[in-house]
């Protein structure tokens, strides 16, 4: 019987309408004789792989089930397509920086887009130029903001945990919230700004835990739960919102 809790991954899966991203939890079972795929209540795919099969065999099986996964997503018929990044921000009305939510004020007009973060970090003002692709303008601004804040914030957290970080790089990943290299370099997705603060910081702590444990073993989760006692709950919450947020700004 498996002892490790499966790690959620956002994986590209072929469908008849093209590649789509689905949250997948891969787990290995000594008792399973065949590959098995089931869906959770939030549409996440649970892929069970017998111990005698490799991960690649499991992924090949998963890649043949794209249309089935898509067809059985919960409330698919009534589910709306992801809106634009602008629409998302106008509805949410905040972004996440460090340990709190920062209120958004969005204005239009002017010849150049810019942002202004008040000294008390309570309000972020976005001035947006008229553009045919306003989402591209927003992505550029939010990436710039993330690059100016997230690396220093990650190092602050690392310093409290007495950890050494080589580099912190902000990227525009399609399916990953973050990663940690063997050299101790951490990459973070600028979309951390769109997550609730506790989830935003969970991702950072998750990657910092990889400085000591470059896997998702029991030792990794035990360490991560020292850093964040609610790590497993936060991991599930991130899974629920990943598909929607990763689609923004594309």
Strands, total number:
11
What is the typical, i.e. mean, pLDDT? 86
Largest sheet, in brief, is: 4 strands, mixed
Tell me roughly what share of residues is in helical segments: 25-40%
- Strand % is 25-35%
Quickly count the domains.
2
CATH fold topology of the largest domain: Zincin-like
Structural class based on helices, strands and sheet pairing: alpha/beta
CATH class of the largest domain: Alpha Beta
Second-tier CATH architecture of the largest domain: 2-Layer Sandwich
Biggest sheet, strands in spatial order?
Answer: 1-2-4-3
Low-confidence stretches: none
Coarse morphology:
globular
For CATH, the homologous superfamily of the largest domain is named as: Metalloproteases ("zincins"), catalytic domain
Cα-atom radius of gyration? 20 Å
Order of helices and strands: EEEEHHHEEEEHEEEHHH
Distance between the termini: 40 Å
Outline the fold blueprint.
Layout: E1 8-15, E2 18-29, E3 36-39, E4 45-50, H1 55-63, H2 66-71, H3 85-92, E5 94-97, E6 100-108, E7 114-117, E8 123-128, H4 134-160, E9 168-171, E10 178-180, E11 186-189, H5 197-209, H6 218-227, H7 231-246
Parallel strand pairs: 2-4, 6-8, 9-11
Antiparallel strand pairs: 1-2, 3-4, 5-6, 7-8, 10-11
